[in-house]
Amino acid sequence: MTGHDLFLPTPFLVICAGLMVMLAVTAWRRSVGRSFSCAVGTLLLVIATVGRHVGTLPEDGGSLFIQDQWTTCTAILIVFSSLCILLMSWCDAMHDRDAPVDEYPLLLMLGTLGALSMVFSVNYMPFFLGLEILGISLMGLVAFGRRPAMAGHEAAMKYLILSGVSSAILLFGIGLAYGVTGSLRFMPPVAGRDVPTALSVVATVMILVGMFFKLSTVPFHMWLPDVMEGAPVPVAAFVAVVSKIAIFSSLVRYFGTGEQPVFVNDILYVVIVLTIMGGNLLALRQVSLTRLMACSSIAHVGYLLIAFICPGHLQSRAITIYLAAYTASTLGVFAVMTAFATTAGPDGTVIAQWKGLFFSHPFLASAMSLMLLSLAGIPPGIGFFAKFEVAATGVEHQRGVLLCVLVIGSIIGLYYYLNIIRVMMSVPSLPPVRVTRHVRPELTALVIVLTIIVVIGGLFPARALHPFLPSPAVASGMRDGTVH
């Protein structure tokens, strides 16, 4: 047994054990409540064990996984997001008598395992396996739900085809990188004396393109609105939050553990401008709230890439805060959408359905407004502080063009975010129709918790976020590959 076989982050062991228990429970007797309870218990235990590991990390860097403060921060965000999405899905799953949904929490847990594998990886093998586990589970999750079957199947098929294409490009780049370096270490390939430099450039570009597909940056973005629209609302949240955190964390790890090639900056400049402008302009045309959130997600990836392209002592802080703000605000929007939906009424995915919500359901309307203002970068939400931190990284490195694009994109975003609030504040033309809604205490609690996080993070960012931020030493170590 070699040294890297002995090192394994504890969350892997916990979530794998939880999956085995869930499989055994499902095989013994189908019970939706029991499956969801096992999944929630497992995720809570994972949060309690984040930051711990089994074995000793080898000094020669030959491990498959790594454990540092960056992995701890992103793993907590992923597990917390999965827990929130389980709570969003609980009530609908318990009342769905048409088909058994025991596999739903199982697939969601598998997706979480894949995302954690990507976050902890410092080797191509666990990274690619985690990516495929996440992708395969998402195909099944997208097809779940009580929406028209064809919509879910079409969305799952689109994801299958485009995810397969992007994975093939990524795998081809990994193969070229291995041919250049003879190593599977997760870092940009550097050509040796006997290897053409062009080969390492092609390998890096293909890996970057594969990651851009998964991140849905422009021009590799068109699949995201269609897939999120065809998926159930909680699954759309999973696609918008968990998968984005996992792949962006891997992108930071990949280019933070070695010398970043010069040409990558030029590629990123073009991608950032196209992503911010493309995502915001596409959002202007949407009448579906789910599609609008998908386009918004594309734009937020562009904002994150600004911090990514500006290495320095502010980078790790800005990226972590922005990921936390994006996670809490986006989950809050989807939680309110789920709470607004009814069995025999509006599903909350069309913006026009929200007309007059301030008069009929002021609590939901207020929570939704706060989340949208946070995404737009307006106080008192945490999004304002997050966007300020990203702008600070651009100022530190004098990225004038990117700062102008950030400002223009934020102004465009204000229009479509505030337009939703305007719709909710509009006086309904007819008296509001009272639609019977099941009492959902778990959703009410979830919306309250996410609202508190967004407000506290915006009013007291230093106290609320400082314990979770990577230290300057961690950020420095990520750039030279020495942090463990």
Automatic annotation (TrEMBL):
GO CC terms of this entry: endomembrane system; plasma membrane
Statement: the UniProt record of this protein carries the keyword ATP-binding: no
Enzyme Commission number(s): 7.1.1.-
Chief site of localization: membrane
Protein function: NDH-1 shuttles electrons from NADH, via FMN and iron-sulfur (Fe-S) centers, to quinones in the respiratory chain. The immediate electron acceptor for the enzyme in this species is believed to be ubiquinone. Couples the redox reaction to proton translocation (for every two electrons transferred, four hydrogen ions are translocated across the cytoplasmic membrane), and thus conserves the redox energy in a proton gradient.
Ranges of residues in domain NADH:quinone oxidoreductase/Mrp antiporter transmembrane: 123-412
Organism of derivation: Novacetimonas pomaceti
Name under which the protein is recorded: NADH-quinone oxidoreductase subunit N
Membrane association type: Multi-pass membrane protein
Gene symbol of the encoding locus: nuoN
PANTHER family (UniProt xref): NADH DEHYDROGENASE
Subcellular location: Cell membrane; Endomembrane system; Membrane
Pfam families, sorted: Proton_antipo_M
Keywords: Cell membrane, Membrane, NAD, Quinone, Translocase, Transmembrane, Transmembrane helix, Transport, Ubiquinone
Known partners and oligomeric status: NDH-1 is composed of 14 different subunits. Subunits NuoA, H, J, K, L, M, N constitute the membrane sector of the complex.
GO biological process entries: ATP synthesis coupled electron transport
